[in-house]
Write a structure and sequence with these properties.
alpha/beta, Rossmann fold, 3 domains, six-stranded mixed β-sheet, 20 helices
Length: about 550
């Protein structure tokens, strides 16, 4: 349906892609992965035609329609929400606008043309366009009262959902999406997973959400060594198989037949597990066809995130009593919060309003006063905080060694070799450690903040959306480190797998009441009684 032939992309002396050939077929979902800077977003732009390759070409089968998730959130500010969605099917929208224009200047001369257009419009199911668009919007959490609102009047998070509805509208033959889960809540992501899991056409998606990739992908497209390598299976299969291949490459003394047997057993085991997925039958067939030599080690570098504690905390961690917080616009974020953190708790802190969770972190870190109530940390606790907005930490134009040295406590810790050890664990080695902190990317800043947290050796970690800006390798390493951490953790994340594998307790802040459960994340989200309680607790349903 969609193919790429002899594709090369070069910027100056840097070769991004070299002689790439790949085909995308109907009924499959392709997850595009690669290290930051590998060219994932550039590749999607080349597929959509918004960026030209240096050489080679992209071919879309004649008569097929491609839809691309719009990245410019202000592109449709002069349209209503409903019209913006219908614009997603450009051929249909073009006919609709021509019919409207002809009716506005009706004459006998254009009557025949109107008739022709109406026949084509009916064949494209145009008469149901508005109702289909409205249904998509509702499924994505855009209430009916917003459907005729101007896009310019929506906040950024609602715009993202409208543009997602636009991309999905009209069942395109090829659907191209770059980070579609950004700014979506768990319920909406779950709906999107189910939608794409049952989608019968071609999907090509870039995402840093591992759970999402596992739920929807039949194939992984790995950008590595300036090539695109196509693998059957989802992200977890690619990750585990590439790690196995890397271990085998390091085992020089192991016989070839032993390695082949180990890989074959891995494929068989994964084929058995895949029976639980929505695309079970097709995926199992793909894995059965997979050849041993198709599995290759990856060139990815994974940071070494290791959280040690300077000392173990006592039983008293954090006590919060009668706390409430109100936003600057007067919205009640949470009310009468009473909470006791226990030693070793790993708490996923949730709210449909991200301002609520951020406000709580800021209060208990002394950066903001509560509107009512109080809190007290245990005397044996030491805290380390990763805020969602870390800009205030990177205002001085100093190199990373000097930046991290600010939090060193002893003369030994201030030594450059000691500081470089923590930066090196986060992949800032050699000259990279001398970069100025004011020129860092979002992901680099988060990795610096993690270096700081490791240096502090606190026994309580607080993390507000810690996976924002991180690549899949850093997220995976971070996730594993928190699973192994012996201290107490409070975190907020939109990464489903992160929440499910780390959290032992769920605390949800609502304007009416706090919901507090010792539970895994999946059990909490699937519990019908909790779902009903949650809906009652929010003043304005989302």
């Amino acid at each position: 349906m969609l193919s790429v032939s002899n594709l090369s992309v070069q910027f100056g002396k840097r070769i991004l892609f070299d002689d790439v050939n790949v085909s995308f077929t109907q009924g499959n979902c392709y997850g595009v992965i690669g290290a930051n800077g590998a060219g994932k977003s550039t590749f999607l732009k080349i597929l959509s035609g918004s960026v030209d390759p240096t050489s080679g070409h992209v071919h879309l089968e004649h008569g097929k329609r491609m839809s691309v998730l719009e990245q410019n959130h202000n592109a449709h500010d002069d349209h209503t929400v409903l019209e913006t969605v219908v614009i997603g099917n450009k051929p249909l929208y073009k006919i609709k606008k021509e019919i409207d224009a002809l009716y506005a200047d009706y004459s006998d001369e254009n009557a025949d043309r109107i008739g022709e257009l109406q026949v084509a419009f009916e064949e494209m199911n145009g008469w149901n366009a508005d109702s289909d668009a409205a249904a998509l919007l509702s499924n994505l959490g855009i209430r009916e009262e917003y459907h005729f609102t101007q896009m310019s009047d929506l906040d950024a998070k609602l715009k993202v959902r409208v543009l997602l509805a636009q991309a999905l509208f009209g069942t395109p033959d090829v659907l191209v999406m770059d980070e579609p889960t950004n700014d979506l809540d768990y319920e909406t992501i779950e709906w999107l997973e189910n939608f794409l899991g049952n989608y019968e056409n071609t999907v090509i998606v870039v995402s840093h959400d591992r759970h999402f990739l596992d739920a929807v992908c039949t194939h992984v497209v790995d950008i590595d060594f300036s090539k695109l390598n196509l693998y059957s299976g989802n992200y977890t299969f690619w990750y585990e198989s590439s790690q196995l291949a890397a271990r085998q490459r390091a085992q020089q003394n192991k016989k070839a037949e032993e390695k082949a047997k180990e890989l074959q057993e891995f494929i068989l085991r994964f084929s058995a597990n895949v029976a639980k997925s929505k695309q079970a039958t097709s995926r199992k067939k793909m894995l059965e066809k997979l050849k041993i030599e198709d599995i290759k080690p990856s060139s990815r570098r994974y940071p070494a995130i290791i959280f040690d504690r300077e000392r173990e905390a006592g039983d008293q961690i954090l006590h919060i009593e009668g706390m409430s917080a109100i936003s600057e616009d007067g919205t009640l974020l949470f009310d009468n919060l009473n909470l006791n953190l226990a030693k070793g708790d790993k708490v996923a802190l949730l709210s449909r309003d991200s301002r609520a969770t951020s406000a709580l972190y800021e209060i208990i870190n002394g950066n903001r006063k509560p509107d009512s109530g109080k809190f007290q940390w245990g005397v044996t606790t030491t805290q380390s905080y990763l805020p969602a907005d870390n800009a205030s930490f990177f205002t001085e134009n100093i190199n990373l060694v000097d930046w991290l040295r600010q939090w060193a406590k002893t003369e030994e810790e201030k030594e450059e070799v000691y500081i470089r050890g923590f930066l090196g664990k986060m992949l800032f080695s050699g000259e990279e450690a001398l970069k100025k902190c004011t020129v860092l990317s979002g992901g680099e800043k988060v990795r610096c903040m993690l270096s700081r947290m490791m240096l502090l050796r606190a026994n309580v970690l607080m993390l507000d959306e810690p996976t924002n800006h991180l690549d899949l390798e850093s997220i995976t390493a971070f996730n594993n480190s928190l699973k192994n951490f012996k201290g107490t953790v409070m975190f907020t994340t939109h990464d489903h797998q992160f929440a499910q594998t780390v959290a032992s307790r769920i605390v949800e802040l609502t304007p009416k009441q706090t919901i507090d459960r010792y539970s895994s994340f999946d059990d909490y989200m699937s519990d019908k009684s909790i779902r009903e309680q949650r809906e009652k607790m929010y003043s304005v349903p989302v």
